[in-house]
Structure formats: structure tokens, C-alpha cells
Design a protein that fits this description.
CATH topology of chain B: Rossmann fold
Order of helices and strands of chain A: HHHHH
Strand content of chain A: under 5%
Oligomer: heterodimer
């Protein structure tokens, strides 16, 4: 038997340990999946998340109110002002987009009006180019 | 085995020092850097708020290209770079090589000012405007649309509401459309009104944070996602090819983006809880969404091992649409794996391309 063959058929401790580990992980995955898709899991995670969400929401509200007060005292625009400005800019963007599209359409229709004249220019021996348009 | 062969084998296999060096550099790479993803050359041709429409630089001469352009639309809560992950593993690269004039609508990342952005805004404002620009740039009045995940849901709504807009071919990839089978859909159980308080969540965050969406998706297979993936790469740290592939995917997975609050609320309430699209009770800005109005050629791609959008969510749409030319394509793989990786390149991409190619001239 060659050296290579000995290497492939001999006992590999790491391979055995990996196989054992993979087996355990598969079993763990099955259990975890059953747990995470069970009704008790949803009940518990929902019960745990409610107070956390309540605290996060309340602190967000309090921070926003305090920030708004400070900004107002400094005569600076509030968060709401900036958000409203951003929405307004998006609306302006939409209007500009419509104008841009109308210009594209006008340019395209101008081009399409030019298209039927091309054969005539050829028929004119190429001299009709100056009259085109 | 002869002495010469033994020597050749020894020379080909790396020494222990080389292996350790490779392991060290790969470990350093995945723990300290982000992989370069989404690098196929492209130009931004249109923007609106955070959304951008890109046109990929064609690699096939204009005369050999398909005349009908293709628009790619991905989900709202992940980066669209998954469609162009890395050279050799990029759907974008593949379709460009097949001669498509390729466009990508990237939704961008919504900020606090976008918390009121709803599904109607995406379907009736952003998508039609991007398509208008696509038509102008490509010079084609017809186009094909490929939507993936929530992108497929938005594409379906658009195709149903604007059937006369020039949409010729519609490809839906792992489309979450039917929410009736609550037991089979993992997210439906999470979205149940008894356990999830949508109002409180949005009061706390404004938009739905990307990390929470990612956490929810990972909890559908907790051990595989939180532990298995890392163990697999640690087992193969000396395999640079596999590490690079994992690194690219991990860079994409960990770069989630928030979902606009109003959109997330609508997704949970109107779709996951009330299944309004399939029940025929969905309206966007007063326009009723009627799936039978969808008349474009339809390819419905279903990933057989998808645990995020199980097949039951995508199968039923085929019987509800008005398309004369419609087909279901079942491919092995999961929600993302169906379009990424060597299996996707061999099984999914060629089939999609073959279907589209026959309808793009």
C-alpha cells in the first residue's frame, strides 16, 4: 500500500471530532427550530419585547421633546422642520423629474419628426441636410 | 506509487507554514474587512429621493443585443448588490454577457424622513418614473422586469395596476404573494397580532431597523444562521476560494437596511395578516389591485428549499393572473442560494435566460 493510500484510510482524529460536532449541531438545530417556532417562544419573546419597546419609544419621545426645546431656544429649526423640508425636496424632485421627462419626450418627438426627412436628404444627393429641421 | 509522483504531490501540497499563513491572512480578511461586492461598471441615470436607477455598461455590441431591456428590482431591506456579488458569481455579469441592456433599480436606504413612505409610493411613484427613464434611455417602448423577494411583490403590484405601460415579460423570483398558509410561513407566525405590536415597534424606531429584520430572518433557522455559517468558514480557512465566497456573502448579509415604517406596517397588516392581495381586497391610492389585469408573459421562479418565502407563497399566483404565456420554474436551493453560487450559475440563470431570450426579440 502506498503512503497516500495509508493517509486516506488511516484514522483521522480531527475528521472524527468534526463529524461528532456536526451531528451535535444538527440535533441542536432541530431543537432550536422547534423552540423558535413554538407558541410559548412567541409568547415569551413578545412579553420580553413589550417593555423594551415601551421604554425605547418613551425615551425617543422624551429625547425628541428635549431636543426640540433646546433647538427652539437657540432659534434653530426643529427635527420636524428638517423632516418636512426633506419631504418637500422629494416633491420638488418629482416635479423636476416630470419636467425632465417632458423635455425628453419633446426631444424624442423632434427627432422622430426628423426621421422621415432622412431619405429625402439622400435623394437630394446629401444637400438637403442644411434644410433639415 | 513511484518516487517521482510522490515528489510531485509533495511539491503541489502547501507546507504547514504556507497553510498557517493562508489561514492567518484569511482570518484577518474576514474579521477586519468588507469584501468588494457589486463592482460591475454602471452609470446612475436617474435618482429620486434615495432611489437610483443604474444602467450597466453593455459588453455586447448594440447590434447583437436583445432589443427589449431588462430591469432588475430587488427587495427593500437588503442591498441590491446580491445581484452582482462578485466576478464569476454575478447574475448581472451573466445577463450582460448574454446581450441584455440591463438596468437596476436600487431603492436606497430610507431615513427618518421616509417613515411615511408606503408601498403605494414605491409602486405608483418610484417604479413608473424609473421605467419612464429606462424607456427614454433604451429607446424601447417595451421592457422586461425581474423582481426578487419583496421586489417581486412590488413588481406584481405594478404589473397588475399598470398593464399597459409596456411591460412585456415579468420574472418573479421567490415572490411572497400568498399569505394564506400561516403554518408554513415562518414570518406569518412572527407577524401574528398576538405577538407583534406594530404600532409600538414603529413608535420606538420610526422605520423598521435592518438589524431586526435580519434577526427575524435568522431566527427562522437559528443555529444554521448564527453558528453554522461561521463554523463552516472556520473549518475551511485554508481554502481561499471558499473564504472569499463566504466573505462576499457575509458582507452582503450584514449590510441590511431599514424598511420605511409605513411600508413595513402595510406588509405586516395587509399582506402577512390579512392576505389582501390574494383575497382581492388590496387597494393602493384607491386603485384596486386585480391580479387578472396582469397580462405580461410571466415566469414564476420558485426555490424548493426556501424557508423565508416557502413555495406555497409563490405557487398560487400563476392561476390568478391574466397572462396567456405563463410558466412555473422550480429550482433547487434556498431564498438567496437560488440566485447566488455555482448551483445558481448552472441551474437557475441559464433557465431564466432561455425563457427571457425567447421573448426579448
Amino acid at each position: 500500500m502506498s503512503q497516500a493510500e495509508v493517509g486516506t484510510t488511516g484514522f483521522d482524529l480531527f475528521k472524527a471530532l468534526r463529524a461528532r460536532r456536526d451531528g451535535l449541531m444538527n440535533a441542536w438545530a432541530g431543537v432550536a427550530l422547534r423552540v423558535s417556532s413554538s407558541r410559548p417562544y412567541f409568547v415569551v419573546s413578545s412579553a420580553l419585547s413589550r417593555p423594551a419597546l415601551f421604554v425605547t419609544g418613551a425615551s425617543r419621545k422624551a429625547t425628541a421633546a428635549a431636543t426640540a426645546q433646546i433647538l427652539a431656544q437657540m432659534n434653530m429649526p426643529s427635527r420636524e422642520d428638517v423632516l418636512a423640508l426633506s419631504k418637500r425636496l422629494t416633491r420638488i424632485e418629482m416635479v423636476l423629474d416630470d419636467i425632465g421627462a417632458a423635455m425628453d419626450a419633446a426631444a424624442a418627438s423632434g427627432k422622430s419628426r426628423l426621421v422621415p426627412r432622412q431619405p429625402q436628404r439622400v435623394a437630394d444627393g446629401g444637400n438637403g441636410g442644411a434644410r433639415a429641421g | 506509487m513511484t518516487m517521482a509522483t510522490t515528489n510531485a504531490t509533495a511539491a503541489a501540497s502547501p507546507s504547514i507554514y504556507e497553510r498557517l499563513s493562508t489561514i492567518g491572512s484569511n482570518l484577518l480578511k474576514i474579521t477586519t474587512t468588507k469584501a468588494p461586492i457589486g463592482r460591475t461598471p454602471r452609470q446612475a441615470i436617474w435618482t429620486l429621493n434615495k432611489a437610483t436607477l443604474y444602467r450597466y455598461t453593455p459588453v455586447v455590441p448594440a447590434k447583437k443585443r436583445h432589443p427589449v431591456p431588462l430591469l432588475l428590482v430587488f427587495a427593500l431591506m437588503n442591498r441590491s448588490s446580491i445581484l452582482d456579488l462578485r466576478p464569476g458569481n454575478s447574475f448581472v455579469e451573466y445577463m450582460l454577457a448574454q446581450g441584455y441592456d440591463l438596468y437596476l433599480l436600487d431603492w436606497g436606504s430610507p431615513g427618518p424622513e421616509d417613515s411615511e413612505l408606503g408601498i403605494a409610493d414605491y409602486v405608483l411613484e418610484y417604479l413608473p418614473r424609473a421605467i419612464r427613464k429606462l424607456k427614454t434611455v433604451s429607446g424601447s417602448e417595451t421592457f422586461s422586469l425581474l423582481g426578487w423577494c419583496i421586489g417581486a411583490l412590488l413588481s406584481t403590484l405594478y404589473a397588475s395596476l399598470r398593464p399597459d405601460d409596456g411591460l412585456k415579460n415579468l420574472i418573479l423570483l421567490t415572490a411572497p404573494l400568498d399569505f394564506s398558509n400561516k403554518e408554513a410561513i415562518g414570518f406569518s407566525q412572527m407577524a401574528d397580532a398576538r405577538y407583534l405590536d406594530v404600532d409600538r415597534m414603529l413608535q420606538a424606531y420610526g422605520n423598521m431597523p435592518g438589524e431586526m429584520i435580519d434577526y427575524g430572518a435568522k431566527m427562522l433557522k437559528p443555529v444554521e444562521n448564527f453558528v453554522g455559517s461561521t463554523v463552516r468558514v472556520l473549518d475551511n480557512l485554508d481554502d481561499t476560494k471558499l473564504v472569499d465566497s463566504w466573505h462576499a456573502m457575509n458582507t452582503w448579509v450584514t449590510d441590511g437596511i431599514p424598511m420605511a415604517g409605513a411600508t413595513w406596517r402595510q406588509l405586516i397588516v395587509d399582506f402577512y395578516r390579512e392576505n389582501r392581495l390574494m383575497r382581492g381586497t388590496l387597494s393602493l391610492r384607491g386603485e384596486k389591485v386585480d391580479l387578472f389585469s396582469l397580462r405580461a408573459n410571466l415566469l414564476d421562479v420558485i426555490a424548493e428549499a426556501d424557508h423565508i418565502t416557502p413555495p406555497c407563497q409563490s405557487e398560487t399566483v400563476i392561476a390568478r393572473v391574466g397572462s396567456a404565456d405563463k410558466e412555473v420554474l422550480r429550482v433547487p436551493g434556498g431564498h438567496i442560494g437560488v440566485m447566488v453560487g455555482s448551483g445558481a450559475a448552472k441551474l437557475t440563470w441559464p433557465k431564466i435566460e432561455a425563457w427571457l431570450s425567447a421573448r426579448s426579440d
